[in-house]
Each structure stands twice: as C-alpha cells, then as structure tokens.
Amino acid sequence: QVQLVESGGGLVQAGGSLRLSCAASGSIFSISDMGWYRQAPGKQRELVASITSGSSTKYVDSVKGRFTISRDNAKNTVYLQMNSLKPEDTAVYYCNVDAWNSKFWDVYWGQGTQVTVSS
Fold first, then answer.
1. What pLDDT is recorded for position 58?
2. Phi and psi at residue 29, in whole multiples of 5°?
3. Mean pLDDT of the chain, nearest integer
4. pLDDT above 90 covers what percent of the chain?
5. Cβ–Cβ contacts within 10 Å for residue 99, how many?
6. In Å, how far from its chain's centre is CA 99?
7. Of 75, 85, 78, which Cα lies nearest the Cα of 49?
C-alpha cells in the first residue's frame, strides 16, 4: 500500500509565498512522474505542474514564472514552491505520483491541502 502525505498549505496574502510538500511512503519500489493538481470551487481539477524521473518539468501557463516543482528521490518527496501568489491560486492542491508497488504501476493521490490567497 502506498500513502501520500501533503503539508504546507494555508492562508496567505496576495504576493506571498507557500511551499507544499508531498511525501510518499509504503510499498514503493520506484517512482516515475510526480505532479501537483488543484481544484477550485466549482471548477475542474487541473494539472498545475509535473516533474519526470529525469527532472523535466511542465507548468500550466497561469503559474509559469511563479511556481517551481522539484523532487527529492531519496525521500520520495515532491515539492511545489509557490511565489507571487494570487487570489485565483486559491484551491485545494493535490499531489499525484506514478509508482511501482512491486506488482504494477499505479497512480496515487494525496489527501489534498487547502491554499487560500487573500486579496
């Protein structure tokens, strides 16, 4: 069984910064892609940023230049550094991991962490 534990969300004023962390544990033998999604009230969940095992990154246009995704393979952890936050960044943020659990590749999700940006 694989568990993802997120931390780092909270309330911040516009222009501020937050750093999200997501640590994977359990029956993990290998991790490929890792990512962060977000879902605002009344909207569909969207991919914010992703990072491959080779550390190639992708970002949704709305966060380019403000957010940075990174990973620590030794700790099975993915991070999202969020700078210059805007009220429209307010959402529940979920981490997402593709992992090999000794039997097959599967996709795992964190429980979500609330990010609220006040104007």
1. 98
2. -110, -25
3. 96
4. 92
5. 22
6. 15
7. 78
E-only strand ranges, 1-119? 2-7, 10-13, 18-26, 30-39, 46-51, 57-59, 67-72, 77-82, 91-100, 105-109, 113-118
Give the largest Cα separation in the chain, rounded.
Answer: 47
The CA angle 3-51-85, to the nearest 5 degrees, is 90
Phi, psi of 102 (to 5 degrees): 90, -10
71 contacts 51 by C-beta, under 8 angstroms: yes
* pLDDT, tens digit, 9 for 90 and up, residues 39-75: 999 999 999 999 999 999 999 999 999 999 999 999 9
Tell me the pLDDT band of 77, cut-offs 50, 70 and 90: very high
User: In this structure, are residues 21 and 76 in contact, taking their beta carbons and an 8 Å threshold?
Assistant: no
Q: Is the Cβ–Cβ distance between 87 and 55 less than 8 Å? A: no
List phi, psi (to 5°) of 89.
Answer: -85, -5
Q: Is the distance from CB of 93 to CB of 38 less than 8 angstroms? A: yes
